[in-house]
Amino acid sequence: MRRSPHEWTVGPRRRGRGPLPGFGPALGFTLAYLGLVVLVPLAVLVLRAARFGAHELIAAVTTPRALAAFGLSFGASLAAAAIDGLVGTLIAWVLARYRFPGRALLDALVDLPFALPTAVAGIALAALYSASGLLGRHLEPLGLQVAFARPGVVLALAFIGLPFVVRTVQPVVGELDAAMEEAAATLGAGRSLILRRVVVPQLLPAILTGAGLAFARGVGEYGSIIFISGNLPNRTEIAPLLIVTKLEQYDYAGAMAIALVMLLAALALLLLANALQRWTLRRAGEELL
């Protein structure tokens, strides 16, 4: 039986008119808003880049400086996402499973990178890990340079990406059935075996989703990195900073080419994150059945 437009809603079917507009007006507003705010600016970027020849665009993104910037942006983002995947899962487990004094404060601190301007985070990290900083003065004699080096870039990206993993994994940890862990322990399984065979398989989709979002966020990060990386070409220069440098030099073709690569990478990462989320929901539905 064909549904009326008012029946295309989430949840159980309801009779009568609801307080919100129907499917048609809601979809029209959604498409119009996303078109003006998201699609139009991105389409303009693609059209502007298309004005330059393909040879010029390819040459701009294959220079040694551009390749080094891409390598640092993607490589550091991947390393930071891996760190966040491990540390964020542990933090999510503690927040969801245990009650202790100061838990509310710790839970609020997880969201601090969302509220804190990224430039402030970069300045704070640079001051902390520089050669004269509180921690940097002890690391430099050991040959460990964090500020104005690649480890500082990874640290800054791990800082801004941590909330994505924690907030993605935390509700999944809260919904885990402790009876399964107790049953495995009753059958003689040790803690490591329970972790590998019972807990991790249920958390893995959420961990991958959160790490994917952290990776996508890190690829486009700018503010927190420019203060701690040192911005050395071919060494600690990230792709977003190279775009700004190209614009300052009136190299619009180079800036557009690099921006187009970042746009395509961001779209691919978001599609991957959405696919992981659908996989998580599908697995959850299969377990309920």
Write the layout of secondary structure elements.
Layout: H1 23-50, H2 54-61, H3 64-97, H4 103-110, H5 112-115, H6 118-129, H7 136-139, H8 150-174, H9 178-186, H10 191-219, H11 223-226, H12 239-248, H13 252-288
Helix pairs in contact: 1-13, 2-13, 3-8, 3-10, 6-8, 8-10, 9-10, 10-13, 12-13
Task: Describe this structure in a few short sentences.
Helix content is 73%, strand content 0%.
Dominant shape: globular
> What is the level 1 CATH name of the domain at 81-235 and 266-288?
Mainly Alpha
Q: CATH superfamily name of the domain at 81-235 and 266-288?
A: MetI-like
Total of helices: 13
User: Helix proportion of residues, in percent?
Assistant: over 70%
Strand % is: under 5%
How would you state the average pLDDT, rounded?
A: 85
Multimeric organization: single chain
Low-confidence stretches: 4-15
Shape-level CATH architecture of the domain at 81-235 and 266-288: Orthogonal Bundle
Order of helical and strand elements: HHHHHHHHHHHHH
Largest sheet: none
Radius of gyration over C-alpha positions, nearest whole angstrom: 23 Å
Q: Could you give the distance between the termini?
A: 26 Å
SS content category: mainly alpha
* CATH topology-level name of the domain at 81-235 and 266-288: MetI-like fold
Number of strands: 0
Structural commentary:
The protein is an all-alpha fold. It has a domain at 81-235 and 266-288: MetI-like fold (Orthogonal Bundle), CATH 1.10.3720. It contains 13 helices and no strands. The protein has helices at residues 23-50, 54-61, 64-97, 103-110, 112-115, 118-129, 136-139, 150-174, 178-186, 191-219, 223-226, 239-248, 252-288. Helix 2 (54-61) packs across helix 13. The radius of gyration is 23 Å and the shape is globular. The model is unreliable at 4-15 (pLDDT under 50).
